[in-house]
Amino acid sequence: MLQHPKPIHGFTLLEILVALAVFGLVGTALLHLFQSGLEHIERSQHRTQAVLFAQSLFTQLRTQSQVTLGTRQGAWGNTYRWQLQLKSYEPGADTAPDLVSAILQIEWGTQGRYETSTLLLAQSLNDS
Predict the structure, then answer these.
(1) What is the distance between the alpha carbons of residues 95 and 89, in angstroms, rounded to a whole number?
(2) What is the mean pLDDT of the chain?
(3) Residue 4 domain-assigned (yes or no)
(4) In the chain, N or C: fewer CB atoms in 10 Å?
(5) Could you list the residue range(s) of the whole structural domain that residue 121 is in?
């Protein structure tokens, strides 16, 4: 009596191709998610550095007894460029004459920018 061979159980070529396509799509989506997460971390890091630099600069200005009005600019490291504008703060006639408006702009790269402002109390002002 002739016996039939046992049927072979396995995957067909079509099933393997479909599985590879699904793994490829999932892998591409995960790679894109990972890349956008890294970009977000880099933007956050630059903004945090800019905020810390601004706080440091404003603290330094607050310790000075004389503030020179005008515009200053410079670079911080190889990445950041900054510009500080100091001008008299005069929103109304009844304000104290020794308030200075400080506006700081920090830029990095081609699209990174942070701007902040504060008021400084100075004992005497010198126009430049």
Answers:
(1) 8
(2) 86
(3) no
(4) N
(5) 13-127
